[in-house]
Amino acid sequence: MSVDQTRGRSTDHLAHVVMIAGAAALGGFLFGYDTSVINGAVGAIQENFGVGAALTGVTVAAALLGSALGAAIAGGIADRIGRTRVMQVAAVLFIISAIGSALPFTVWDLAWWRIVGGVAVGIASMIGPAYIAEVAPAAYRGRLGSLQQLAIVLGIAVSQLVNYALASSAGGSASAQLGPLDTWQWMLAVEAVPALIYLVLASVIPESPRFLVRAGRIDQARGVLQRIESEDADIKIEEIRNALGGERKTRLSDLRGKFGVLPIVWVGMAIAALQQFVGINVIFYYSSTLWQSVGVEESNSLLLSLFTSIVNIIGTIVAIALVDKIGRKPLLVVGSLGMTIALTLTGWAFSYANVVDGETTLPFEWGALALVSASAFVFFFAASWGVVMWVLLGEMFPSRIRAAALALGTATNWIANWLVTVTFPSMQAWNLPVTYFIYAAFALISLFFVVRYLKETKGRSLEEMGTS
């Protein structure tokens, strides 16, 4: 075969992998959309059901616990029925949740449908990185794995645009009637459309060759590998067999080590927790409040919150461009350092805030610093931890424990997300500047942790993971 033919074949393989990885990443889009869309409807839900802020907060946060549950169970299910089948399960749950959330009778069944959606989010957040890592060639695995995070931030941005467009169509209010339903109901129902697309795509993309080898479906694995790998399929199958160490399905007991779980699993769980303990979701959940604190009218704050999403998307694109060039570890180091400085500046700016009847206002110069530093924090996060954490969780574990370890790491991420989300209001009321300083401290801890404990995975095949 000539050099041009070999290059052409490699290009064809890469194009095929990009398409199926993009299809799998649609679960990430739904992940971002589902977790963000509820924010535009919170006020209207509270008004519609006549409930207080505490019960509304419980209803919204219930989805995060559902996500932890979904992530925890996804690994075992994926090892039994396959990666694509699990995607289909997640898609069906997304559809059911969207319809149920849009047509609740009480706030309690709304909370239940949010939990169902949260389970779908947890499953999608686990299976997307796992599947993409298992079909991607080593040289492109970082960039392809980054599609998950790019899809998440696009989902967040699209949900904000949809909420704004629907509210504008109803005269600017999420509580107003729009056809047969209230506007907030349409906000939640629209999610069924991308969920249906996800279901269709998950039904046509090929199963992971590593799952097929584990299941003894060698001919199917060979066929998939011939479409996604440029090297000899039989050689790759033998590598996968050796890495799996047998055909037995992974159990959680396989993760046990001297200190509870294996050291590599502890590292994965710590990376997953630290990604949330820097407080990134506080910025997204309260970005409109940040704009209002510097004098922006409430009616414009939702639209201006899109600025945060745009910064997030730009940072994610930067990470995609660099993750396979300079590696995972250098990106995390730079990101941790940048987040530490940005969060420290944000806390310093808010130390000059005036709080009257729970409303926070800042003098213009300190408000400008808060907006710039908060935006810088989002950029550094998106260009490093936002992308690299998902890439690492998908690739850092040995093949024989990957699904179970990834499930545990993803569940840890969701539990950390929930902890930050439910503690922020109390911490904000106690001392907002110190709250940001605490997040800055976690960013600094993440820097030392990466330098001390994380091994670079750039350019290594999945079958090499777990070896020295």
Describe this entry's structure for a reader.
- With 468 residues, the protein is mostly helical.
- The chain folds into 2 domains: 7-205, MFS general substrate transporter like domains (Growth Hormone, Chain: A); 253-467, Growth Hormone, Chain: A (Up-down Bundle), CATH 1.20.1250.20.
- The chain has helices at 3-37, 42-49, 53-81, 83-102, 107-135, 141-169, 183-189, 192-202, 209-214, 218-228, 233-244, 263-277, 280-285, 287-293, 298-304, 306-322, 328-350, 364-382, 385-395, 402-453, and strands at residues 177-178, 181-182, 354-356, 359-361.
- The strands form 2 sheets. A two-stranded antiparallel ribbon has the order 1-2. The protein has a two-stranded antiparallel ribbon with strand order 3-4.
- A hairpin with a 2-residue loop joins strand 3 and strand 4 (359-361).
- The relative contact order is 0.13.
- The model is unreliable at 1-9 (pLDDT under 50).
Describe the structure concisely:
This is MFS transporter, SP family, sugar:H+ symporter. One of its GO terms (molecular function) is transmembrane transporter activity. This protein has 20 helices and four strands.
Task: Chart the SSEs and their pairings.
Layout (H helix, E strand, L loop, with lengths): L2 H35 L4 H8 L3 H29 L1 H20 L4 H29 L5 H29 L7 E2 L2 E2 H7 L2 H11 L6 H6 L3 H11 L4 H12 L18 H15 L2 H6 L1 H7 L4 H7 L1 H17 L5 H23 L3 E3 L2 E3 L2 H19 L2 H11 L6 H52 L15
Antiparallel strand pairs: 1-2, 3-4
Helix pairs in contact: 1-5, 1-6, 1-8, 3-4, 3-5, 3-20, 4-5, 4-7, 4-8, 5-6, 5-19, 5-20, 6-7, 6-16, 6-19, 10-11, 12-19, 12-20, 14-15, 16-18, 17-18, 17-19, 17-20
